[in-house]
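Subject: complex prediction, re-run

Hi both,

The earlier run crashed halfway through, so I resubmitted it with identical inputs.
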Amino acid sequence: MSTDQLWSSYGIPMAKLLWKAQNVELEGIGSLMVVDGCLVEESDLGQNFFVTPASVGQSRAKVVSELLLELNAEVEGSHVQRDPAEIIENSPEFFQHFSLVIATQITGPSLYKLADICWAANIPLVIVRAHGLMGYSRIIVREHTVVESHPEQIVDLRFDSPFAALREFAESFNLDELDSMAHSHVPYIVILLKAVDSWKRKHDGKLPSSTADREQFKQSIRDQQRSDMPGNQNFNEALASAYRAWTPTTIPSSIRSILNNTCAQNITSETPDFWIIARAVCDFVQNEGQGFLPLPGTVPDMHADTESYIRLQTIYRAKAREDAAAVSERVANLLASIGSSPSRIPVQEIEMFCKNAGYLHVIRYRSLTEEYATETARSKTIGNSLAGDPQDNIAWYVMLRAVEVCKTQFQRYPGESESHYVSDQQTVRKCVDAFMQEHGLDPALIADDYVQECVRAAGSEIHVIAAILGGIVSQEVIKLLTHQYVPLNNTVIFDGIKSAASVYEL
Amino acid sequence: MVLISSEQGESMRVMPSRYSGVQAAVGADLFKHVSGSRVLMVGAGGIGCELLKNLVMSGFGEIEVVDLDTIDLSNLNRQFLFQHRHIGKAKAHVAKESALGFNPDAKIKSHHASIYEAQFDQAWFKSFDLVLNALDNLAARRHVNAMCLAANVPLIESEIDTVLRLRWQTQSKDISRLYNSKHPKRPDTLHRVGQKLFVQLFGKPEDEEETINEEQTSDNAKEMAHLLHEKEALKRLREAAGTPEYGKLVFEKVFTDDVKGLLVMEDLWKNRRPPTPLNFAEATSDPSVTSTPADELAWDRKVWSIEENTRVFLDSLHELAVDFIEQQKRDPEFSMSFDKDDLAALNFVTATANLRAEVYGLEKKSRFAVKEMAGNIIPAVATTNAIIAGLIVMTAIKVLAGEWSSCKNTWVARNINPERLDKPNPSCAVCTINSYTLAINTESASLGDLLEMVVKGSPGESPTSGLGIQGEIAIQEGERLLYDVEFDDNLDMSLSELGIRHATRVMITNENDDDETGNSNVSVILYIEHRDEFGMPAKPFFTLDGDRTLVPRPRAPSAAPDPPKATSTATNNKRPAVLIDSDLGGNKRQKQENGNGDGVMHILDEDDTVLLIE
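This time it finished cleanly. Structure:
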C-alpha cells in the first residue's frame, strides 16, 4: 500500500493522534506525515507514551514521527513543525498530496475550512476528538466504494433457476435407483434442485410461497428419505437449506441502485474503475446474465461423496468463470469506448467484483456543512435518540458542539480555568440550550449532569480514551484505505463511563 | 499535582503535570486510589503490551507482570513494547523496561515465570487490589480465575478471539462467579504451528548467543539452559539441510523427540490427554504413498492420511531445503517467508499441522482448509488490542472506585457493546468450590491427620476447627487420587512425602448417600501453606482461614461427572453466548460462540493471538 497520511494535531494533547498513528504503523501504511506546531510539554508525558522527559521542549511533530518509525522501519515518515490552523488558513494546497487526512482535536473555523478543502479535493477526512472520558470520530468522504465487504458467507446456488450444466447434473441422479449408501451421499444441492423442479412442474412453474406450501415442500423432501436410513445428514442439510430453494434468486435493491446509478450509466474517461465494472455488470444482467448477477461460484461445505462434491464445485466454478469472462469483455469494450487501454483494469479485479456483486457497498457521506447547517442538520436523529433514552450517547454529541462554540469564543476549553469554573458551567449550559433551540429540540432533554461532566473534564485528553479511540479510528482508516469491509457512516461516539460506542449518521 | 492555571497569560501558567489529564477526568480522590493500587497483570503478549502501557500512562501505583514466554519474531507486528533486538529475551522483563521508558516513575516488578509456580501462592494473590488477565490460554486463565476466587481478589478477564470478536469481562466473587461457565472457544490455530516451524527452518536465524548471555544472570538458569539447548538443536537441524537424513531428522525432532520431552512434564498432562509421539519407520512404511496425485483438485480437498502427510512433509521439506540452500549460496543472508500461494510452503504447513494434530489427537484438515485459514490472516489486530486494553483500564478504575454496578461485560464486535455482568450462577461447578488456605506443617502432618482433623474435624468459630465434612470422602491432588474409602494406603504418609508442599492445591469431595442427614455434597480446595513451627508444642497443629459454612456442590447435571476436577470442570457448565453485532455497516450478524475450549490447544498455539477472520 502506498499511501500518504497526514496526521494533524492541534491544541494541548495528542495522545490519541499517537496512539492511532502507532496502530496504523503496525498495520502497514506506506508513508505518513505528522503535522504539529507545539513543543513537548510536561503534561504530554501522561498522555503520549512516545515522549519522554528528555523530549520536553522539542518539536512534538519531530519526536513523534521519529518514534513512530521505530515501530515499523518500513514506513516512510516525515513531520512538519507548523500549526495546522496556520497551514489550513494559508496553504490549503498542502493537503492535496495525501490520500487521507486525520484531524485530531481540531475544532471551530479551522476544522470547517479543512473539511471544505478535503471535500473539494475529494480526500477522505477523519475527525477525532477526545474530551475527558468521551471520544468522538466522524468520517467524511464524498463517495466510498467497497467491493470486498467480507460478508459472512456468499451463497448463490440458483435452486429456482439452474443453468444448463447444473440442471443436467441434477438430472443425472435417479434417487430411486441408488443403493442406500449412495442415496445417503447425494449432495443436498441435488436433492433441493430436484425437489424444486418437481414442485414447479406441479404448480405452474411457481415456487412454494405460503406457509402451507413450504411445509408441503419440506414434506416432499422428507418423503424421499429411505426408511432404513432415516435422519441422513444430506437430507437434514436439504431441509435446513429449504428456505434457499423457495427464495427466488433476485438482485437486492441496494445492488440494483448501484448498477443503475448515473455514475455507471454515464461513463467517461474520468470514471473510476468501480463504476466501469458496475456498468459492465449492469449490461451483463440485462443480456447474457438473463436477469441474474454474475455467479460467485462458491459452494458451501456439505455431506457428499468426494466425486459429486467436486463435480458440483467444478460446475459452479465454470459458470462463474464464464460469467466473469462475459463481464470482462464488456469492460474491455467500455474502456475502448472511452479511449482507455483494456489493461487498465486487471482481470482479477473484475473477477473479484463479480464474486462480490451481490454485496457491493457505496457510501456517500454527508459533508460537514450539511451536518452543521441548521436546515440540513439531522435534528430528528438527535431528538429521537434523546427521547428514547435521555442518556443516549448522542447527548455527548450535543455537548461537544456546545464545547466547540465555547472553545471558539474563549480560546480555551470550559473548565480549564478554575476561576471561571462556575461561569463556564453557565456558558456551556447556554450553548447547549441555544443548540437545542436552533434544532427545534427541547433543551431540557440534556441534563445538567452532562454540563458538569463536560466542564469537569476541562478538555482533558486522557491516554486510555485516546488509546481506545485510536484503535477504533485506525480500523476505520484501514477500511477506508483498503476499500475492504464497510466503514462506519458517519459518526461514532464512545462513552468511557458506560463502555459503549454508538454510531449515528449526522 | 493539581492543575492550576491562571488567566494572566501563558507565561504565568503553572505547567500541568504528567497526570493532570487523568486527574481531571477521573477526579482527584479516585486518582489517589489508582495511584495507591497494587495490580497484577498476567501475560505480556498482544493485549498485555497495550495494557501495561495504559497502566503506567494512567498512573497506576504498583504493577507486577508475569509471563513465561520469550519474544519471537512473529510477535513484533503488534506487541509494540518489543523490538527486533529483543528476540529471544523474556517478555516480562522487556515489557517492564520498555514501559519504564514511557513513565520512569512507574513501579513495575517483572517475573519471567509460569503463573502456576509455587511462589505465586494465595498470600501473593491476596496482596493485590486487582488482577488483570491478558492471557491466551485457557488453562492458565482457569488457574488465575480459581486463585482469584479463592483469594477474593477481583479479576478482569479479556480475550481476543478474532479481529472482530473480542471481549473483556469483570469478575469478582461478590459480583459474578460465572466466568468459567462461559469460557471461550479457541479457534483452530493448528496451521500456525506449521508456519512457525517453517520460520524456524527457513526464516531469519535469531541472534542466539548474545540474547542468551544477557539472560544468564536471571533466576531461571534452568529455563535458559533449556532454551539454549533448543536453539542448539535447531541450529544443528538447519545445518543438516540438504543431507539425505534431513527429513528424518526434522520429523523425529518435531514429532517424536519434542513430544517425548513434553510427556516427561507430567504436570501438563494431569488434566488432558497426553500426546502420542509419531514413529518415523511406521509413518513411512508404505512405499506406494505419493505426494503427487493424479487429481490435484480432489487431493486439495481430501484430508490426508498419516502416511500421506508424512510423504508430503518429507517431499515439501526437501524441495524447500534445496531451494533454500541454492538461494543461500548467492546470498548468505537469504531467508524465506511463508507464502500460502507457494505450493511447497503450503504443503509443508499443511502436513506439519496435520502431523501435529495426529500427535494431539485433534482433527486434521485438508490443504484447502489450511490455505483458507492461513490466507485469511489479516494484520488488524493491533487496533483491537488497543481498544480492548483501553476498556480494561477503564474498568480497572471503576473496580478500584468500588463502582461495581457500572462494571460491564463488554463485547467488541463491529461496535462496542456493554452487557450487564452475569449474576452468580448457583450451579457453576467452579465457584461453588469452597476455598481455604490451610496452614500446616507438611513435614510432620500425615494425610490421616489432614483427613481426621481438618476435613472431618468438627466445625466452629476457631481457626483451628475443622470443616466437618461427612460421607464418603475423596482427597485428590490434581487428578492424582490420594485417598478414598477404598484406597487408604497413604494415610500414614506425611504430606510432603505425598508431594503436598507449600502452594499445592488439595481437592476434597464427598458423597452423601443419605439426603436426610441434611449434609450436602461439597467440593473444597485447600491451598496449602507450609509452616515449619506448626505441630510443635504450644503451636497449633493447623489453621484454616474463613468461616465454615460450605456452599453445596450443584446437583450434578447430567453432563457433570463427579467429583469435579480442580481445574477442568468448566466444560461441564458451558453455555452458549450469543453475540449480536452492531448496526455498524448496516448488516446485522449473529454469531454463536459456544464454550468449547480445548485444553490442548494452547500448547499448540505458542503464539498469543489468532488472526482469523471467518
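Chain A has four domains: 4-143+461-504, 164-246, 253-363, 368-457.

- K.
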